[in-house]
Amino acid sequence: MIDMHQISMVISLLVATILGIIVGVEREFVRKEAGIKTYALVTLGAALFTVISFDPNFSDPSRIIAQIVTGIGFIGAGIIIFHQNKIHGLTTAAGLWVMAGVGIAVGMRQYALAVASTIIILFILFVLRKLKVEDRLHVFAGIKEEEEK
After folding, report:
1. Residue 21: which residues within 8 A CB-CB, separation 6 or more?
2. Within 10 A of 36 (CB to CB), how many other CB atoms are there?
3. Region 106-120: what's the mean pLDDT?
4. Which domain holds residue 105?
5. Tally of domains within the chain
6. Which residues pair with 82 in a beta bridge?
7. What is the per-residue pLDDT for 46?
8. Residue 118, pLDDT above cutoff 80
């Protein structure tokens, strides 16, 4: 028989998946290495492990949560590539890492924190890219020439 506790755990997994999909869609629009499926799986997995870690049979949920952070760091390291004097995939790796944090927040039923974090992440990925903040900083610092329009 399914009880209310199990239903609330499933709701947590669905919320985590939806938040991962939202950020994954933004990443798909800019054709990044990790997209909808990757972001959804990272947030779902982090939420799942977090929900499981609060089972009374586990004495210390923080150990499992710490391993989520380590595991995502390992995945992120595999995404980062140094090619022709440039680093590629760093934002993708950071995005997956922070989305694991969103999944952990959802798994701990901190829904407002998870949604607010997702909104901030989208601001960083979408709005800052549209405003070309990094390009403007590079021009200001003299690292890059201003492009003619």
Report:
1. 36, 39, 40
2. 16
3. 95
4. 4-141
5. 1
6. 87
7. 95
8. yes
